[in-house]
Design a protein that fits this description.
Helix content is 50%, strand content 23%. With 182 residues, it is α+β, with helices and mostly antiparallel strands. It has one domain (3-180). Helix 1 packs antiparallel against helix 2 (31-48). The longest helix has 31 residues, at 54-84.
Length: 182
Amino acid sequence: MDARERYHALCDGGLYAFEQHERRFALPVVDDLLVPYARERLAGLRALIDGADSVDMADDPYLVAEFTYHYLRLRRELHRDLRHRAGGGEWLVVPQFTGGLGVRALGGAAVLVLRPAGGPRRWEVTRRPGAGSSWTVHLAAEAGTNIGVIDAPDELERDEALFAHLLSGLAAVSRTIVRRRG
């Protein structure tokens, strides 16, 4: 078995682990967001090997293992928070270098999800349950600092509790200090 075949086998192992955890730690309130995200990210990692040189190949397996670990941990802990913590839990994060995803149980069955939104520093914020509870926010960098200034829809900023959760979530996922604009 050559290096590429071994790498693809590692990705297949990650997918198998995803499937097992998704059955054991089902999250019906957000699985339609999390499952496609994990599959797309793993497919992107799988494709890394095709353009890799020997130096890249040393890092690529680590990224697959790291992403798999964080995604499985996120599922397990969110499942626990939803079942056993009435007041919600802390932000659960897949670090940005491996995919950038944040999820937080808010209490009861409510969940807040932060996912990359197809552009640098753009994030999709989704509150579940709740139809139509999804927004796109932009995190602009202040020149020469590790501070991000959030540009969010007014509707989102008016809900103080939700906006406070969003600020802490963006700080956790992006590893920057986040503040309001203006």
